Amino acid sequence: MAALHLLLLSLLCTLFVYQCHGACAEVDSDTEAVAGKGFKLGCISCKRRSEVDGSATVEWYFRAKGEADFVPIYTYDEDGPTIKHDHFMDRLDWNGSKRSNDIQDGSIYLLNVTFNDTGTYSCFFNRILSYENYEYSTVVSKVVQLSVVAKATRGTASIVSEVMMYVSIIGLQVWLLIEMIYCYRKIAAAGEEALREAANAEYLAIASESKDNCAGVQVGE
Question: What's in the keyword line of the UniProt record (predicted)?
């Protein structure tokens, strides 16, 4: 029984470490682009339950400064990327999750930024979670308020965003380390318990054999 418990703990710890290698941290996008340069429009939506299979498609919309309505500009699904608006034709590249339909990073890269790109960008994750007997659909949206400048400046929002990104990464690594130590301690404790049980069983077997031998001697006398 102890050996089975030890095996289960090992499998759980291995699974935990495997899943945490794909840890996801939601970091806000930068909001200031430089005219003539490239710019990453960040959009990350972490799946809350990593053990559940899922798939997602991503849609991007844009509302120019002074305009009232959003227009579709980009989609990414199982068939790949599609640019939806002439203004962004040949200027948008996928910069998100790759080699997986379970998209958590829906970022895109805007090439050759112009002042006409100033405005509000909205990103939508259309996610389907596949459980054993049913599927659950959910929609998550993110908003990026983009301003375009002639020369790069180091804004407060950019600094805070970068700091938060590193804090999130460090926090995840510390959490992973603590959980690994906990798992290994549990494994070690289970191993020691298994050894104690084996030693006790061996002692009882020897004691029982000695008792039987003594009884046999007495009967012989």
Answer: Ion channel, Ion transport, Transport
Give the strand order in the sheet containing 80-83. Answer: 32-34, 135-149, 119-130, 53-64, 71-77, 80-83
Q: How far apart are CA 35 and CA 148, in angstroms?
A: 6
Distance separating alpha carbons of residues 211 and 217, to the nearest angstrom: 10
Pair of tokens at residue 188? 């070690």
Give the pairing type, strands 32-34 and 80-83.
unpaired
- Is this prediction's pTM over 0.85? no
Work out the end-to-end distance of the chain between its first and last CA atoms, rounded to an integer number of angstroms.
42
C-alpha distances in Å from residue 32, one per residue of 120, 149, 204: 12, 7, 75
pLDDT tens sequence for the chain (221 residues): 444 444 444 444 444 433 444 567 888 899 999 999 999 999 999 887 777 888 999 999 999 999 999 999 999 998 899 999 999 999 999 999 988 888 999 999 999 999 999 999 999 999 999 998 899 999 999 999 999 999 877 665 667 777 877 888 888 888 888 988 988 888 888 877 777 777 777 766 666 666 555 555 454 55
SS3 category, 129: strand
Question: What Å distances lie between residue 37 and 44, 118, 134, 147, 157, CA to CA?
Answer: 22, 14, 46, 13, 19
- Length of the chain counted residue by residue: 221
How many other CB atoms are found less than 10 A from the CB of residue 207?
10
The dihedral through the CA atoms of 173, 100, 146, 144 has a sign that is negative
